[in-house]
Design goal:
524 residues; single chain; alpha/beta; seven-stranded mixed sheet; five-stranded parallel sheet
Length: 524
Amino acid sequence: MSKFDAVVIGSGTAGLSAAVSLATAGKKVLVLEQHNMPGGCATSFVRGRFEFDASLHEFCSLGSPGNWAMTGKLLMEKYKLDIDWCLVPDLYRCIGTTRSGKHFDLRMPCGVENFIEAMEKAVPGSGKPTRTFIELAEECSGAYDYFNEHLLDGVDKKGFTYVDEGLFMKKYPNFLKMAEYPFNKVLRKIGMPEDAIDILNVYWTYIGTDYERLSFVHQAWMMLMYIKYHPAFTKRTSHHLTMAFVKKLQELGGEIWLNTHANKVVSDDGGRIVGVETEAGFVETHYVIANMNPQDAYNKLLDKRIKVPDREIKRLNAQKHGVRFFEAYVGLNKSVEELGITDYTIFMPGDLDTEKNYAYSKSYELNTHSVVVIYNVVNPEASPVGTTAMTFTITYTEDVWGTVSQRDYVKKKQELFAKVLENFEKDTGIIIHDCIEEIELASPWTFCNFLGTPQGTVYGFEMTQWDTMVSRLLTLRKEQPIRGFKTCGASGARGDGFNQTYLNGDDMAQLILEEMAEDGKEGK
């Protein structure tokens, strides 16, 4: 029988972060992974002579050596991972028509002053409110940094994350006024022209909620990180990032068991966790972190003696599943130079109307809003010399593909990509259909099969008006009520994406370390 200080079930982004965080604190950690390779979405696959990244488009809060942002501080300073990064010089190109009927084909730059100048040029009169937006985003970023630094300081009398109210009122007064208001409502309040609002809304697919409902702080923080620190991605696909985590875990004395399914988290008669039953035998531990959807964890993983509070069950039942993706991975036998491609990220929504796009995301027929990423524009080594690797992403907010029959499945994938490809060539003038060498199409079914998530969701739960990042952070301990057992991942307090899930994994590790310290004092 094996014995570990803590066991992490699932080696996705948050799980590996939690494991390395615990190992960094000197704990003996085991990671259990049912697949034959680690990483979850943070992986790659090969088709012909192309290696495609399964999911990573870009980080928003990485930074650079000597100027690391929040995620960079975690990965590069705390964890000391060995990673080569590529910084994207610009934010994005967007092609679409605003609600006023004006058509835009814009390239938005990084850098605060550059960004303000570009907004004013695109929509005259938007420069001043854009500067105000940046100032409010800076205040929100400061408040978020405070949460990040003091998240584990303790709780108040009601069990909420303790916040120094006096400090907040002094340093972040505007945060308290507008953080939980919808993003677009705040933009209108500061006088942002409607066309400019539509341009700023193109990032909605990165969070999965339309900006008439998403809280201001979430989008303001993410966009500020992109503007100040540049988008970034790993030079050798996200699988390289995953293996850097595995290497660091092993250097710190931790272990990872592949092809090993966790059958049950086992407790004693009093409901205290005593170990994990696996296909490789019983593993003794009092602390478990599961990198999985909490509904699945509670219903399938815990033995019947571990009680899940009614409040937690009601909360999860009230939440809405996050977005699902259709991905087209395309390898071209021509270089970006030959094709005239100069943009790394191209948003192609058709309509620059976040409410309409959100509504279309519930339909197979209407939704052709794609985000195109061309890796070779920034990283010439993303594919063999003379070739190009690119991805097309379409976002769904409902289980659209659940109604597709097996008989029609392949045809539906091919028809959808044909529409997206036609839109790309028409809107950009770049012809690629005659030089496609490799192509792989992945639907939400694909992600459901690989990740085991409900309906193939990748983003956990949708951030709604009542279920925001701030409210989740304030109730962090309430939403992780089982002593010795935590869940992590895109369903966590910080929401979705590589940045947030790595941070969430560290959050859960800190909660476990807190409980370990308390149990040690009490002699348990």
